[in-house]
Fold this protein.
Amino acid sequence: MTSHVMELRGLIGNRLLLLPSVAAVIHDHTGKLLLQEKASGEGWSLPAGAIELGETPQDAVIREVKEETGLRVTSTSVLGVYGGSEFRYTYPNGHQVEYVVTLFKCQVLEGEGTWTDAETKSLRYFARDDMPPLALPYPVSTLFS
């Protein structure tokens, strides 16, 4: 959690917070999608996170992917922007958020998948038919376009 979000949480507690965020769609050479298993037991998600103050969405997705996967990427296109009540989420600690997510297609430039973020338990590439449920309802057709 960024210091800005921590400061807001100190003021509003667990109440619903609207957060601009990013998520990355990364495929391997066979077309499988990279997912991150959360260490907190929340299940699987795209590499993603909140945009920090003064940060562009493009910079945020590159930073988040590096932190959560160890991969250095470049964003190649915006696949969509998602939000609304379907993108509300309550964390195990009770914090409520509603994300406005810019979804980026990303290409791996380098890296071995060694992450520095304590949020990541494991990483794995999934075929469309073998994907686990995700915390947020991204359209599967967009994830595999």
